[in-house]
UniProtKB/TrEMBL annotation:
UniProt xrefs under PANTHER family: 2-OXOGLUTARATE (2OG) AND FE(II)-DEPENDENT OXYGENASE SUPERFAMILY PROTEIN-RELATED (PTHR47990)
Keywords from the UniProt entry: Iron, Metal-binding, Oxidoreductase
Region (Disordered): 69-93
Name the UniProt record assigns to this protein: Fe2OG dioxygenase domain-containing protein
Gene Ontology terms for molecular function: metal ion binding; oxidoreductase activity
PROSITE patterns linked to this entry: FE2OG_OXY
Length: 314
């Protein structure tokens, strides 16, 4: 049988305390994170039915007429526009989305319909947050950091957010759904419907993530890349829209508190005689620069701020 293109890791050894299984899983994860920062997980603790239900309900929601969706427009004071959003007309990203912060956040604006949607979104969020913590713990161990290091550094869960996305069908002339990028946060978890379209760049080639029910995609993001001084890679990924149908997905961003200082850790620099590859920065500063890419897009996309903004080049 052909090798699956993106490795799929069974996380059950981590809940069953199967030491041998954990070791094997960690080898696969370490390799994937060192090369390109993407892998898939099964037995991750989020019920498959819940993931399916979330996709079904988001499909119902996004198929409503605009005026119904616009009833969940964001309140103006939120740090990110929680609620229903469309991309600006000039954006190359042809999607619409519903964004939420943790259940109970006062920024959240939920649709009234379909009636079960809010409860399912809150459930999915809570479950993905638990899986995010588990993955962070595994990444911590794969990086050889002291136990609980990342958990303690990244203890404030109020910055996490999730988006339900709907991508419009490709046209004859273009199929960009989400332009290539790296996520700014720590770890992202994604699931997509059977239309597929998510791709990751490995050795200069775009590798499609073949959709598989109940499977979550793990995406290592910029904060982990900086802390580990490039030992683990922030995945470059994009979404290509399929023809003839819309495509639905969810992305959960296991984030970091804005006032945290981010810089390569001593473990990956002075302790091993390596120079830092990034200068330190406050996370909220980087978030603002990234947000500005969206609100004030530069004329050439190459001028968008990425994590390379903090590179030490000498
Ligand atoms: O829709 C997807 O599959 C991925 C979304 C994504 O990469 C993002 O929102 O940053
Ligand atoms: Fe992304």
């Amino acid at each position: 049988m052909a090798e699956p293109l993106i490795p799929t890791v069974d996380l059950s050894p981590f809940t069953k305390n199967d030491e041998d299984g954990k070791k094997k899983a960690m080898e696969v994860i370490t390799k994937a994170c060192s090369e390109y920062g993407f892998f898939q997980i099964v037995n991750h603790g989020v019920p498959i039915n819940l993931l399916q239900r979330a996709l079904e309900l988001s499909k119902v929601f996004f198929e409503y007429p605009s005026d119904e969706k616009l009833k969940s427009s964001p309140a103006s004071n939120a740090p990110l526009p929680a609620g229903y959003n469309t991309q600006p007309q000039q954006s190359p990203d042809k999607n619409e989305y519903l964004l939420m912060f943790p259940p109970g956040s006062t920024f959240n604006v939920f649709p009234q319909n379909p009636p079960d949607f809010k409860r399912v979104l809150e459930d999915v969020f809570s479950k993905l947050r638990e899986t995010g913590l588990l993955v962070e713990t595994i990444v911590n161990q794969c990086l050889g950091l002291p136990p609980n290091f990342l958990k303690e550094y990244n203890h404030d869960r109020s910055w996490d957010f999730m988006v339900a996305l709907r991508y419009f069908p490709a046209t004859e002339s273009e199929n960009n759904g989400l332009t290539e990028h790296e996520d700014s946060n720590c770890i992202s978890l994604v699931f997509q419907d059977e239309a597929g379209g998510l791709e990751v760049r490995k050795d200069g080639e775009w590798i499609p993530v073949i959709p598989a029910k109940g499977t979550l995609v793990v995406n290592i993001s910029d904060v982990i890349q900086v802390l580990s001084n490039n030992k683990f890679k922030s995945a470059t990924h994009r979404v290509v829209r399929p023809k003839g149908r819309s495509r639905y997905s969810f992305a959960f961003f296991y984030n970091l508190q804005g006032d945290k200082w981010v810089e390569p850790l001593p473990h990956f620099t002075k302790d091993i005689g390596e120079s830092p590859k990034y200068r330190g920065f406050q996370y909220s500063e980087y978030l603002q620069l990234r947000l500005r890419n969206k609100t004030h897009p530069p004329t050439t996309p190459e001028d968008e701020i990425r994590i390379t903004h903090y590179n030490i080049t000498s």
